[in-house]
Amino acid sequence: MEKLKFALIAIVTLSLLGLLGYWSVRTLQSGTDYKASQKIQQLEQENKDLKTEVANLTAELNIAQSKLKLEEPAQNVVKEPEPTVYKYQDLITQLQKLVTNKTVLKLKSKGGAVGTVQKFLNIYNKTSNPVDNDYGAATLAAVKDFQKDEGLSATGEAGSATFNKMIDWLKEQG
Fold first, then answer.
1. Alpha-carbon gap, residue 137 to 152, rounded angstroms
2. Are residues 135 and 157 in the same domain?
3. Sequence-separated (6 or more) residues with CB below 8 Å from residue 130
4. Does any domain span residue 84?
5. Do 93 and 72 fall into the same domain?
6. Any domain includes 83
7. pLDDT below 50 — which residues of the chain?
8. Contact 106/81 with Cβ under 8 angstroms?
9. Residue 81: inside a domain, yes or no?
10. How many CA atoms lie within 13 A of 37 on its CB side?
11. What would the DSSP string read from start to end of the chain?
12. Domain final residue pick, 41, 76, 111
């Protein structure tokens, strides 16, 4: 009976050792797998730490930006001056081109430059005479009247001095 007991204990012990061996083979990792899992755990921890740091830095940045907005003095804001746009800006621009080009208009002149002067004279005299781009007697008389009104020599010829007075008059209108 003793042998039977011994045989049973040996069988149970061997079975337990077999199960333990099977369990260890199934659950143990190779060295490469173990190192890889350790590296993954390390990287996950670093990722978590970096996310926390980003959140802290974002909060600090928001605080700094709000302080900067509050502390920003008004005199440090340099605004470009808005260019003045006049009611008759297009006509002013056309007259300025005549000044720049040193254009002189007189009786029997023709073209767009004459039309520009005629448009001005219609505004100045509050008339609606036709703009025919022809410097005729009516245009000559209107230019002379304008020159007299503005203290210029009333020659009837329109040059830089007359154009500049026309520009000044238009700017005064707004």
1. 19
2. yes
3. 118
4. no
5. no
6. no
7. none
8. no
9. no
10. 7
11. -HHHHHHHHHHHHHHHHHHHHHHHHHHPPPHHHHHHHHHHHHHHHHHHHHHHHHHHHHHHHHHHHHHHHHH--GGG--PPPPPP--TTHHHHHHHHHHHHTT--B-TT-BSHHHHHHHHHHHHHHT------SB--HHHHHHHHHHHHHTTS---S-B-HHHHHHHHHHHHHT-
12. 76
Query: Could you give the CA distance from residue 92 to residue 98 in angstroms, rounded to a whole number?
Result: 10
Q: What is the distance between the alpha carbons of residues 40 and 33, in angstroms, rounded to a whole number?
A: 10
Say if residues 8 and 16 touch (Cβ distance below 8 Å). no
Stated pTM of the model? 0.54
Determine contact, residues 102/160, Cβ cutoff 8 Å: yes
Residue pair 156/136 in contact by the 8 Å Cβ criterion: no
**List of residues 6+ apart from 16 with CB closer than 8 A:** none
Cα 11-17-20 angle, rounded to 5 deg? 140
Structure tokens at 169: 């008059």
Q: Looking at the 3D structure of the chain, how many domains does it have?
A: 2
Residues 67 and 100 in one domain: no
For 35, the domain range is: 2-76
Interval 12-55: pLDDT, tens: 999 999 888 888 777 776 778 778 888 889 999 999 999 999 88
Residue 11: phi, psi to the nearest 5? -65, -45
